[in-house]
Amino acid sequence: MKTVIIKYNAGNVQSVMYALERIGAPYLLTDDEAEIRSADKVIFPGVGEASTAMAYLRQRGLDKVIPSLKQPVLGTCVGMQLLCRYSEEGDTTCMGVFDVDVRRFPATPGLKVPHTGWNNLTTMQGPLTEGLTENPYVYFVHSYCADVCPETSAVCDYVRPFSAMLQKDNFFAAQFHAEISGNVGQRILENFLKIDKRV
Amino acid sequence: MLTKRIIPCLDIKDGRTVKGTNFVNLRDAGDPVELGAIYAREGADELVFLDITATVDERKTLIELVRNVAHTVNIPFTVGGGISSIADVSALLNAGADKISINSSAVRNPDLVDELAQEFGSQCIVVAIDTRFVDGEHIVHTHGGRRPTELRTIVWAKEIENRGAGEILLTSMDTDGTKAGFALELTAQISGAATIPVIASGGAGSMDHFVDVFTTGKADAGLAASIFHFKEIEIPALKRYLSHQGIPMRTTR
């Protein structure tokens, strides 16, 4: 099995690479279109600022490549946000795989932004959360989030309920950092690597 | 619900944990990687590795250690000690650290906070504040709490937040090592004023001290070192206790 991690400027991809190594899944870190298209699984990570990241993807044509992929794709954190329609961060038009917008958490007394730490998932659906105990905890660090929508496959609640995970066809996404979310995160990554559906 | 975090801190010198530990089941009590992995298994929510010597020569050892920790541990960890440039941070993040922590270098050059936040994002920039009560005021100290500055702690906390810090690690030098409890009033004051999370450190001696720091102290996370290393408090028992006291805690199975 060939797993590709998309290489771009919004990455602490290091921890994703280590997580795959712990699972024993070989991977390739690349921004080459042919390599990405020929992969069995594609992971699209991201830590950083949305508009800068989108500009980089556009420059390399990856903004067209990623939405057209047919194999299972997993976007995490900013990677997930870039797969949405639009992000308030830097007033950014994103790739529009998921039909939802990304907005900043509103300032709320007593609730800190960024949403930092372990929070639990509810109303989980789909293959990625299979085998997990009820309301499992995963690690979040983010100031922007996607609303709950028909494509939401797990909900988290902070200030308001938001999409912790999204799923549409072969596209999967997680707002949290599965790669450092303990055994729960590891199971989610393993579940993703087991999906054999191409569309 | 977002949980409060329990964070063991490991002091590192020459790539080894400095303070002794009571982990009899450790093959090598001085091995930070093994100790970190045990804490992660026991349910620690994050780890902090503090390089207390951090000279240029020792940097390479630290980078190697960070790489090994990142490879082994599947929870977030922060690395601090002697970090003063974008290059330092870049090297640590590339080795697999999730966050870095700066202290004296931020006081010396506050623009560093802005630069790091811009370059790497606020989410990975922790600013540590060592504070001491002097003549009726909480004053920021540097160099392991030995050297006073002109800065009032609350003013400095707001400044680093405005400059783009993602988190504050607040250590009270008055309570540190006393095991008499966290500096609750100060922690509540800083946490109440800040819009970013505050990690409270210094003074933990009992499970109730953690209850206090999360309720009265309004802290987002509690950090301690020796009480965990010497197994005076074990993390699973602590988290169960806090949970029973109504403090939101991550449960692991």
UniProtKB/TrEMBL annotation, chain A:
Pathway: Amino-acid biosynthesis; L-histidine biosynthesis; L-histidine from 5-phospho-alpha-D-ribose 1-diphosphate: step 5/9. It catalyses: L-glutamine + H2O = L-glutamate + NH4(+); 5-[(5-phospho-1-deoxy-D-ribulos-1-ylimino)methylamino]-1-(5-phospho-beta-D-ribosyl)imidazole-4-carboxamide + L-glutamine = D-erythro-1-(imidazol-4-yl)glycerol 3-phosphate + 5-amino-1-(5-phospho-beta-D-ribosyl)imidazole-4-carboxamide + L-glutamate + H(+). GO terms for cellular component: cytoplasm. It is found in: Cytoplasm. Gene3D superfamilies: 3.40.50.880. SUPFAM superfamilies: Class I glutamine amidotransferase-like (SSF52317). Its main location: cytoplasm. It holds the Pfam family GATase. Keywords: Amino-acid biosynthesis, Cytoplasm, Glutamine amidotransferase, Histidine biosynthesis, Hydrolase, Lyase. Residues 37-193 form the Glutamine amidotransferase domain. The keyword Amino-acid biosynthesis applies. Heterodimer of HisH and HisF. PANTHER family: IMIDAZOLE GLYCEROL PHOSPHATE SYNTHASE SUBUNIT HISH. IGPS catalyzes the conversion of PRFAR and glutamine to IGP, AICAR and glutamate. The HisH subunit catalyzes the hydrolysis of glutamine to glutamate and ammonia as part of the synthesis of IGP and AICAR. The resulting ammonia molecule is channeled to the active site of HisF. This is Imidazole glycerol phosphate synthase subunit HisH. It comes from Larkinella knui. The gene is hisH.
TrEMBL record, chain B:
It is found in: Cytoplasm. GO terms for cellular component: cytoplasm. Pathway: Amino-acid biosynthesis; L-histidine biosynthesis; L-histidine from 5-phospho-alpha-D-ribose 1-diphosphate: step 5/9. The active site is at D11, D130. Pfam families: His_biosynth (PF00977). Its EC number is 4.3.2.10. Keywords: Amino-acid biosynthesis, Cytoplasm, Histidine biosynthesis, Lyase. GO terms for biological process: L-histidine biosynthetic process. It is an enzyme of class 4 (lyase). It catalyses: 5-[(5-phospho-1-deoxy-D-ribulos-1-ylimino)methylamino]-1-(5-phospho-beta-D-ribosyl)imidazole-4-carboxamide + L-glutamine = D-erythro-1-(imidazol-4-yl)glycerol 3-phosphate + 5-amino-1-(5-phospho-beta-D-ribosyl)imidazole-4-carboxamide + L-glutamate + H(+). Gene3D superfamilies: Aldolase class I. One of its GO terms (molecular function) is imidazoleglycerol-phosphate synthase activity. IGPS catalyzes the conversion of PRFAR and glutamine to IGP, AICAR and glutamate. The HisF subunit catalyzes the cyclization activity that produces IGP and AICAR from PRFAR using the ammonia provided by the HisH subunit. Heterodimer of HisH and HisF. Belongs to the HisA/HisF family. This is Imidazole glycerol phosphate synthase subunit HisF. It comes from Larkinella knui.
